[in-house]
Design goal:
six-stranded mixed sheet, elongated, binds adenosine-5'-diphosphate, Rossmann fold, about 30% helix, about 500 residues, alpha/beta, binds magnesium ion
């Protein structure tokens, strides 16, 4: 006897203007099963689930729920069929209560009047089922992200979901909250819910999934039982190449003209920095936490300027006492903390690219905008291969990887000679990392100098053409491409004897 899956999607295709988001994808999920959906940013995971939830209509393909063909015209119909989706973007109303949010759009009434009491009772029931102690009358804005997530799940369960989709539910949670959520998923599975679980966190996927499906560029690569796969195989399928080929090759052209030169640079954090950066180079800057590597980025960008020594760009000494002067001199800076990069999700891709300096308001005393034309902006977006149907579309609809590229486009529109990346891949999944490395390589190959400040040793060793290691505010040594992690670490620890290795072994 064959068991009919709770959810069965067949040959689903969906294009957006300019993007084939899904190409003939098959996907199913059984009652009491957790099916993990993996894929790098932009692979099509959210789109597949939005088709399930009738947020989008597929161009072709078929959907069956409990064996019955379904052709939802409206998200309401999908919900009525038992499909609940906790979308990647939390969508609660912050100034309403928990109960009001759980019941939004389906408020119970009694004699035409809102039945608040029933709403609160039912919400409390749901929250207890989820093992939570949040009160139904609490205002949502006062809740933690984890608690808001729970309210979203309660909302999803209100209608007795048979299929529950969780789109990157733990992305914003710390480990402890994520564990609580995973236990909850296990509980719902035991209750017989079919769960589609989207996550970039491999340990989570390995811990919770019964089956794993990998999507790449809108196509299904494979579906396998979890006990038949290992993390490496998933990652390989996600990026479409072997994990050992994950770092980009060395630059094509070899280093060119000196673009940036620092001579005897010092400030409170830095001492006697001598550094030369050439066109075409990615220079990795490594060091322990307080080694001065972050201070070096801030000094080059004028955030915490040098008080002694000089900075030259293309052979000309420049004054870099502020970020504004740095930008004028041709220096760009991409902080690793994406929250500070200030994408405005409800505005268009183009506007976000245009907002270059406004988006960097935190480094300026007042907002500042250099008049870029639309053509210049579009060219930068095109150069960065930002995949959107139309640059007028809201940036919030793009995948994380494409949002990241938009941020970089902002800088390209300013035509910088030198780009500083700090911790470029911190908190980013392994597949998206590869694309960022390729982007850096491409920027270097196009005649720029890239400074990559990083605490990630494999990244420093794998990506850099040259490695500068800092220790106590000084450059403790430089290494060529191909240096070992051990050699970098030795310099980071201030061990500079050439024979450290033999000595330590001896
Ligand atoms: P994932 O969730 O796997 O990161 P998505 O399903 O969000 O990927 O996106 C798949 C592709 O479709 C991406 O290239 C994305 O930019 C594009 N895309 C998604 N939603 C829209 C939309 N509303 N309009 C245009 N393109 C979109
Ligand atoms: Mg997504």
């Amino acid at each position: 006897m064959t068991v009919i899956p709770a959810l069965d999607m067949r040959a689903i295709s969906k294009s957006f203007p300019g993007v084939r988001a899904l190409d003939g994808v098959d996907f199913d999920c059984h009652a009491g099963e957790v099916h993990a959906l993996c894929g790098e940013n932009g692979a099509g995971k959210s789109t597949l689930m939005k088709i399930l939830g009738a947020v989008y209509r597929p161009d072709s393909g078929q959907l069956r729920i409990g064996g019955e063909i379904a052709d939802f015209k409206h998200p309401r119909e999908a919900r009525a069929a038992g499909i609940s989706i906790v979308h990647q973007e939390l969508s609660l109303m912050p100034f309403r209560t928990v109960a009001e949010n759980v019941f939004a759009g389906q408020e119970p009434t009694r004699h035409g009047i809102l039945d608040r009491k029933r709403m609160e009772q039912r919400t409390e029931e749901l929250l207890r089922r989820l093992g939570s102690t949040i009160s139904s009358s609490t205002q949502v804005s006062t809740l933690s992200i984890a608690e808001q997530q729970l309210v979203e799940i309660a909302k999803a369960l209100l209608l007795d979901a048979t299929v529950l989709v969780m789109d990157e539910p733990t992305a914003a949670l710390d480990d402890c909250d994520a564990r609580v959520l995973l236990r909850l998923v296990e509980k719902l599975r035991a209750e017989g819910v079919a769960i589609v679980y989207i996550s970039h966190r491999m340990p989570e996927v390995m811990a919770i999934a019964d089956r794993v499906t990998v999507l790449k560029d809108g196509r299904k690569i494979w579906t396998k039982a979890r006990r038949e796969v290992e993390v490496d195989a998933i990652v390989t399928a996600m990026v479409g190449r072997d994990i050992t080929e994950f770092f980009p090759a060395a630059g094509h052209s070899g280093p060119g003209d000196v673009l940036l030169e620092i001579l005897r640079g010092s400030n409170a954090m830095l001492r006697d920095i001598d550094l030369r950066m050439r066109a075409g180079e990615i220079v990795g800057v490594a060091g322990l936490e307080d080694s001065g590597k972050a201070a070096l980025a801030q000094a080059i960008f004028g955030d915490d300027p040098l008080t002694e020594g000089s900075i030259s760009v293309e052979g000309r000494v420049v004054s870099v006492k502020s970020p504004r002067q740095a930008i004028a001199a041709g220096i760009g800076y991409l902080p690793g903390d994406r929250k500070r990069e200030g994408l405005v999700l409800r505005q268009s891709v183009r506007d976000n690219a245009l907002l270059t300096l406004q988006g960097m308001a935190h480094v300026f005393s007042r907002p500042h905008r250099r008049g870029l034309t639309q053509a210049e902006t579009d060219l930068a977006l095109k150069t960065m291969d930002v995949r959107a149907g139309d640059y007028g579309q809201e940036i919030g609809t793009l995948s994380g990887g494409n949002q990241q590229k938009t941020i970089i486009s902002r800088w390209l529109a300013q035509a910088p000679k030198v780009l500083i990346f700090t911790e470029p891949t911190r908190g980013i999944d392994v597949a998206a990392k590869a694309s960022i490395y390729e982007t850096m390589r491409r920027l270097a190959d196009s005649g720029r100098a890239i400074v990559m400040i990083s605490s990630d040793l494999p990244e420093v060793v794998g990506v850099s053409d040259r490695i500068v290691v800092m220790h106590q505010g000084r450059i403790s040594g430089e290494l060529d491409r191909g240096a070992s992690e051990e050699a970098v670490m030795a310099l980071a620890l201030g061990i500079t004897e050439p024979n450290w290795r033999e000595e330590t072994i001896a």
